C-alpha cells in the first residue's frame, strides 16, 4: 500500500479542480492506493509538510460534482521555482523528508510549464538518490502554450468565455449611431491562443472581431491605425481583440518580474485606446477581460472540464504503470468528429518551452485569424455544465480557510 | 386601426430586448394595432423618420426567444436630450410629422430616467397641441436608480452577473499563500444598488465581499485603509467591492460630461489599488467589471427577463386603456414568496430623479451591506434562461447593420 499526493500550481483556471477530481477518483478505484493527500499551495505544501487528507474532505458524489464546477485551485497555488539540485539541495531534502514520512509513492503536479519544470527536476533528482517516487505532470493553463500537447485543460473554458464575452461586447458596442472603436485586451504573455479564440465568432457569421493582434505577429502602431481606419470605413463599431503581450514601442509593461522571470503585463488595451483617441479622435474604449477569463466557471466548456478530469485520471494510471518524469498530453486524431487520445511526453520536453500560435493561423496582414484555423478552436469550447445553483448563483466547493492556513 | 412605435434608449442591459418583445407580443394580440414600428436609435429614429417594420423582422417564436436572450438594444440607442418645447419647438415638429405620417397612435420608450424625461416632455407637448398619441415609458437600467418602481428591468441580470463574478473572483483571489487585496469596481454613478448586490454572497456563507463602498456612504481614504488593514488581519485575501461613483479626494473622474450632464467615471478601482500598494505594500489588484456587467446575457436572471417582458406588455395595455405620460412600475407585495404587481406612475415623478440605496441597508461603519437588506436583492437574481447555443456560444438575434444605418 502506498499513499499519493496531488498539488495545483500556477495561475487559476476553470479546469484545474476537475483534474484534481480525475486524480482523486482514479486513485479511489485503485486498491494499492491508501491515503490521497492534497498539498497546500502547490509544491510549497510538500516542502513544508502541509498536506490535507482529501478523502476526509471530498465525501460525496455531490462534493465531486461541485468541485469539478469550482474555478481556481481548491488546494491553493504557488509560483515557486525549484533551484537546480546540483547547486542547492536543501529544499529537495525537505521534499524527500515529507514524501518518506507520509509514505507517498506518487506525486501528481497539475500546472503549466513552470510546474512541468518542477516535475522534470524532481524526477531527475529522485533518480540520482534512488527514491522510487513517481512524479507525473498534469497540464493546465488558459494560455495553451505547452509544447507537445494538442491543447491544455483550462484553455477551452477560457476560450469559450472570451468568445462569448466578445460576442456580448459586440452587441453592447453597436448601439449608438456614432462610429466607435472597442479594444478588448485578452490574456497571453507570449502566445496568442486565447486572443485568437475570439475569432470563432466568424464561424457564427459575425464580422467581429474585425481586428485580432497576437504576439506572434509583429505589431506596428502605424499599421494598427491604418487597420482601424480601414475597418471604420466598413463598420460603425469596430471591435479589436489584442493580446496583453504584443510588443508596443513605448513599452507599457510595468517591468515587474516574477520568480520565473515573467514580466507582469497590463494596460495594452488602455494604451491603444489612448492612441486611437489621440490619432483618430472617435469614441473609443478599452475592456480588460482580467481574471474573469480564467475563473468564469459558470460558462465552462463541458469538453474542457471532462477532458481535464480524464487527463488527471490518466496521470494516475501512468504512475501505476511505473512511469515517472512524464507529462500527460492530448493528441488530436480529428477535428470532426472531434477525437483526442491521451499520451505521455517527457517532462523535459515541455518544461520551460512555449508553444506559439502557428504562423499559418494568422492572415497575411497580421491582423486577424484565418477561417481554416477555427476548426482547431471550435471543438474545445463545445458543451456546457449544468451549474449547481444556490441563492441564484453557482455554488462552489471550498475547503475552509483555516485548514489551508 | 392605428400603428405603434417602440424605441430603446440609454445604456444597454440584458433585459431591454425582452421589454421590446413584451411590447411586440402584446401588440400582435391587439386587433386595433396594425404595424409595429421600431424606431432606430431611440427618439432619434422618430425625429429622423427612421423606422423599421418589426413584424417583417421578428418572424417566428424562435426569433422571439432569441431576441429575449440577446443583450443590448437591437434597435440601437441614443443619449438624446429633448429641449424644452417652450424654448425650441423645432424637433417636436419633426416628431409630430413622423407620428402623423406613420399613423402612430402610441409610442413606447424603453429607457432609464433620461428617457422618462422624454416621455414626460412629449406627453406634455402633445397635450398642448391636442395630438392624441399615447406616450408610455417602460423602465430599464442596470443602475436600479429610478424612483417609484421597486426595481428596474435589467438590474436583476446585472446583479446576478456581479454576484456570480464576485464569487468566482473570490475563488481566484485566494490561491496564493501571501496576503492580498482585490478591489472590484462596479458600475453606479450615484447609486450603489449594483455594488451592494455583490453582498448576496453573504447569504451563501461567504465572508467576501469583506468591504463594500457605495456612493450613499461618505468615503474617506483614512477609513478605507484602516478597514482594509482590519480585514487583512482576519482574511488572507481581502475582497473589496466599490462603486465607480464614490467620491475620492483627488478626483479621479476624467471630467468629460455627456449630454445629460453626467460625468464619465472611470478608474476608482485602479486608484484604490495604487493607494493600497503605496500605503500597505501588499499584493493588490483591481478589476473593472466594465460593460460585461450590463451585457452578459448568458447569465441573465430569468426573473428579470420575464419581468422585463411583462412590463413591456403592460405598457401596451396601459396605452390602450387611454393613458399617456405614464411610466410602468413594479410594486413589491412580498419578498417571500416574491410577489410584484405592475402599476403606473406619472413620468414627471420619475424623470430626472434618482433613487438611492436606503441608508438603513448600509452598516454603521459605512463599509458593508446589512444582512436584512439581502432579501431585497435575492429574489431579483433567481432563475436562469436556457441559452440557445451555436458553435458553443449563445446565439443572438440581430437586425442587419445595413438596415440600422
Briefly, what is this?
Chain A has 405 residues and is of the alpha/beta class.
Topology, element by element:
2 copies of one chain form a homodimer.
Chain A: E1 2-8, H1 16-29, E2 33-39, H2 43-47, E3 51-53, H3 61-68, H4 90-101, E4 104-111, H5 113-128, E5 134-139, H6 155-173, E6 180-186, H7 193-197, E7 211-213, H8 221-234, E8 237-243, H9 268-279, E9 283-288, H10 292-295, H11 302-320, E10 326-335, E11 338-346, H12 347-350, H13 374-377, E12 389-390, E13 393-394, H14 401-404
Parallel strand pairs in A: 1-2, 1-4, 4-5, 5-10, 6-8, 6-9, 7-8
Antiparallel strand pairs in A: 2-3, 10-11, 12-13
Helix pairs in contact in A: 1-11
Q: What would you note in describing this structure?
A:
The structure is a homodimer of 405-residue chains. Chain A folds into 2 domains: 2-141 and 149-153 and 297-352 and 384-404, Rossmann fold; 155-295, Phosphofructokinase domain (Rossmann fold), CATH 3.40.50.460. Chain A contains 14 helices and 13 strands. Chain A has helices spanning 16-29, 43-47, 61-68, 90-101, 113-128, 155-173, 193-197, 221-234, 268-279, 292-295, 302-320, 347-350, 374-377, 401-404; strands at 2-8, 33-39, 51-53, 104-111, 134-139, 180-186, 211-213, 237-243, 283-288, 326-335, 338-346, 389-390, 393-394. Chain A has a 7-stranded mixed beta sheet, with helices on both faces. A 4-stranded parallel beta sheet of chain A has the order 7-8-6-9, with helices on both faces. Chain A has a two-stranded antiparallel sheet with strand order 12-13. In chain A, β1, α1 and β2 (33-39) form a beta-alpha-beta unit. The longest helix of chain A has 19 residues, at 155-173. The interface between A and B is large, with 59 and 59 residues.
